[in-house]
Design brief:
Strand order of the largest sheet: 3-4-5-6-7-19-10
CATH topology of the largest domain: Transferase(Phosphotransferase), domain 1
Distance between the termini: 102 Å
GO cellular component, one term: membrane
GO molecular function, one term: protein serine/threonine kinase activity
Structural class: alpha+beta
Catalytic activity: L-threonyl-[protein] + ATP = O-phospho-L-threonyl-[protein] + ADP + H(+); L-seryl-[protein] + ATP = O-phospho-L-seryl-[protein] + ADP + H(+)
Domain Protein kinase: 422-695
Shape: globular
Number of helices: 15
CATH architecture of the largest domain: Orthogonal Bundle
CATH class of the largest domain: Mainly Alpha
Radius of gyration: 34 Å
CATH superfamily of the largest domain: Transferase(Phosphotransferase) domain 1
Number of domains: 6
Helix content: 10-25%
Subcellular location: Membrane
Mean pLDDT: 79
Length: 749
């Protein structure tokens, strides 16, 4: 006997295309998504409902997670602009030491979906680096993080527990994009370990905050099957967030298209500013429903409205009107006054009086609003000023009036005007410490304004002391800090503007019309070494930069080097030799000894400078994604070539052609000493500056006697108030003495 299929219910959801299934299990499927033939806007929005589960589960069809492999994502939720889907093991990166590595690749090119920046990458393993490459239209960016296990001591490895985040786990955020590739690399040899502690590492992608902190046994990293079995819920339970839109157009062109998706009584909303294109639809104010099927008027009179309780509500398209019942005068919203026919003139007078009162009330209310807003803004600025250490700075200014001459306090109004309200077009660069904008002050001076990340309130005193200290640094090779603004949620630091870009760009940009010659490279490293030596030895308290790299070295119009970005710098007492902090820095430049001990010394800056020196000699980047294992690190490759006495193999051809062999050998050996894994065997920045200056002086005094740099000493004459310190270079060979005030030009205050 045939079984009749019941027709769809007459009260099917208005968000679904007529005649189509509206739900799958516990999830409503709104159009442009749909279940079944002709129920979605296009095949990319097709949803299949798998009834073999109880309750049934919806799956998103036809999306490639790899170049030629279809992925069927289980759908968890659908919102106005995003769709939440469950992860699958195919989207997990896995690497087991000695076995083949499985990368995680997601490719959404040509589809209406993009990876949301609400996702993050979580990497689990010991001594592993997760490299993330995400690709946005016309731009590409990447990042990564290292999962590290601290020393385990003499206990059994299986007794140790990892935590996420924490030991054996790291996380990094993602940018919006259409393509993502996650690669895992073994770093145990880079960190100086003889063997890999645990065989396997994993990386997976999911929503930020999608699950709480969890612990795991490190010993499970030796068995990938067991690990996935035990922690499947943590990996797969966190949804992946995708942004979706109507493709191939924007709200300027879409209304003229025959495939325009926004239907009756709806507005077109452009995607965000990521330049991916596409748009959404949204019902107009006063209308509700599915904007892709057509919105209908809301009957405000059936819902709470602003009419008086006894007023008469009349619904209109997109809005409503209020009126008073018979026998009353008024608008039905503010008042309804009873009126007797025998006193109509009085009623008219009362109505006119009420109208005049309303006219007077409106400007009064506007003035009170402006006054309240201005007072609120003033209190808000005062709150931020106190929280960011403004009172402490004022106290120091009262103690020492010279600080006011060198540390200017800018107002937020002045800086907003100089940057066109911090317009995105004014952004010069973004980094781990904040965003830098280009601005022009009222007197026409061009400056660089750094919008820092939130300041730890427990370190406000240290922050203000360092602002005062850095603003008093006067050195031709250090970017000058002009002042700060403390009236905002995050402090704003104002620096002098350097016009000619970063050293990194000049080294690695192959399209540069003016490539750096060997002489220019030598001049630049001499200037940088002098600046760092000045910070280490010539200031009232030694200053450690903590993030020396080629992107933090700027070049002005005359190619004079300027050390910049002191966002992670710290000063220490003169009787201390190191600073114990959380590990901060940039991969490729980070001192391995500091990474393992968390103790930053002056020799940590020396190691980072050694990487910059190797970068200038070789023309290669500090980390190469094209190489594997320890070969990824420029420092490691450079040291291997030096140990094999074959350093010409790694040198930049231009440097090899222009530089004299004696000069190149001396500078390369100096870089080798700077990169020594034992910090005690590295030279000081003062010694580095002297040795580089000797090489440079030999270029201009090629006929002079050979100077033995082992016998050179730096002698500093007594400093006086606001004067240039002179340094005397003395050679012990043949009693030759040469003096110069250039190598370390210091103004002491």
């Amino acid at each position: 006997m045939a079984v009749a299929v019941p027709p769809p219910p007459s009260n099917a959801s208005e968000s679904t295309k007529p005649g189509c299934q509206s739900r799958c299990g516990n999830l409503e499927i709104p159009y442009p998504f749909g279940i079944g033939s002709n129920c979605s806007q296009n095949p990319y929005f097709n949803i299949s409902c798998n009834t073999s589960f109880n309750p049934p589960k919806p799956f998103l069809n036809g999306i490639y997670y790899d170049y030629n492999t279809l992925s069927y994502y289980e759908v968890v939720n659908i919102s106005e602009t995003q769709i939440y889907v469950k992860n699958s093991k195919a989207q997990m990166a896995m690497a087991c030491y000695g076995n083949k590595t499985q990368n995680s690749t997601m490719d959404f090119f040509g589809s209406p979906y993009t990876l949301s920046d609400a996702n993050q990458v979580t990497s689990i393993g010991c001594d592993d680096l997760a490299m993330v490459v995400s690709l946005l239209t016309n731009t590409s960016d990447g990042g990564g993080c290292a999962s590290y296990c601290s020393r385990l001591g003499r206990f059994q490895k299986q007794d140790f527990v990892g935590s996420c985040p924490g030991r054996g786990c790291c996380r990094t955020s993602l940018s919006k994009g259409e393509f993502l590739n996650v690669q895992l690399s073994d770093m145990h040899s880079y960190w100086g370990r003889r063997t890999k502690r645990f065989r396997c590492s994993f990386a997976f992608i999911g929503k930020i905050g999608g699950y709480d902190k969890f612990n795991f046994h490190l010993s499970h990293l030796n068995d990938p099957t067991n690990f996935l079995k035990n922690y499947n819920e943590e990996f797969m339970g966190m949804p992946l967030v995708l942004d979706w839109s109507i493709m191939d157009s924007n709200c300027t062109d879409a209304p003229n298209s025959t495939n325009y998706a926004c239907q009756k009584n709806s507005n077109c909303i452009d995607m965000d500013s990521t330049k991916l294109g596409g748009y959404h639809c949204r019902c107009k104010k006063g209308y509700e429903g599915n904007p892709y099927l057509g919105c209908h008027d809301i009957n405000e009179c059936k819902k709470p409205n602003k009419c008086l309780p006894f007023g008469i509500c009349t619904n209109t398209l997109g809005s409503y009107n209020c009126s008073c019942p018979n026998g009353y005068l008024g608008d039905g919203k503010i008042n309804c006054i009873p009126v007797h026919l025998s006193h109509s003139k009085l009623a008219i007078g009362v109505g006119l009086g009420a109208g005049m009162g309303l006219l007077l009330l409106l400007p009064t209310c506007f003035w009170l609003y402006k006054f309240y807003k201005k007072r609120k803004d003033k209190k808000r600025k005062e709150k931020f000023f106190k929280r960011n250490g403004g009172l402490l700075l004022q106290q120091q200014i009262l103690t020492d009036q010279s600080i006011l001459e060198k540390t200017q306090l800018f107002t937020i109004k002045e800086l907003e005007k100089s940057t066109d309200n911090f317009n995105e077009s004014r952004i010069l660069g973004q980094g781990g410490q904040g965003t830098v904008y280009k601005g022009m002050l009222s007197e026409g001076k061009i400056v660089a304004i750094k919008k820092s990340k939130l300041v730890d309130e427990n370190q406000v005193e240290q922050f203000i002391n360092e602002v005062v200290m850095l603003s008093q640094i006067i050195h031709r090779n250090v970017v000058k800090l002009l002042g700060c603004c403390l009236e905002t949620e995050v402090p704003l630091l104002v620096y002098e503007f350097i016009f000619n870009g970063t050293l990194f760009d000049h080294i690695h940009d192959k399209t540069n019309e003016f490539p750096l010659s060997w002489n220019m490279r030598l001049k630049i490293v001499v200037e940088v070494a002098e600046a760092l030596a000045y910070l280490h030895y010539a200031t009232s308290f030694p200053i450690y930069h903590r993030d020396v790299k080629s992107t933090n070295i700027l070049l002005d119009e005359k190619y004079v080097a300027k050390v910049s970005d002191f966002g992670t710098s710290r000063s220490i007492a003169v009787d201390h030799t190191h600073l114990t902090t959380l590990v901060k820095g940039t991969f490729g430049y980070l001192d391995p000894e500091y990474f393992q001990s968390s103790q930053f010394t002056e020799k940590s800056d020396v190691y980072s400078f050694g990487v910059v020196l190797a970068e200038l000699l070789t023309g290669q980047k500090p980390i190469s994604s094209a190489k594997a294992g320890e070969e990824r690190s420029l420092a490691t490759r450079f040291l291997l070539c030096m140990e094999a006495e074959n350093f010409e193999k790694i040198l930049d051809p231009q440097v090899l052609e222009q530089g004299k062999r004696e000069e190149l050998t001396t500078v390369a050996k100096l870089a080798q000493r700077c990169l020594n894994l034992n910090g005690k065997k590295r030279p000081t920045m003062k010694e580095v500056a002297m040795e580089l200056e000797i090489v440079r002086m030999s270029q201009t005094h090629s006929n002079a006697r050979e100077t033995k740099y082992q016998g050179v000493e730096l002698r500093k004459s007594k400093a006086i108030l606001i004067s240039d310190d002179n340094y005397t270079w003395t050679s012990t060979s043949d009693n030759i003495t040469q003096s110069s005030s250039h190598p370390l030009k210091i103004h002491t205050v």
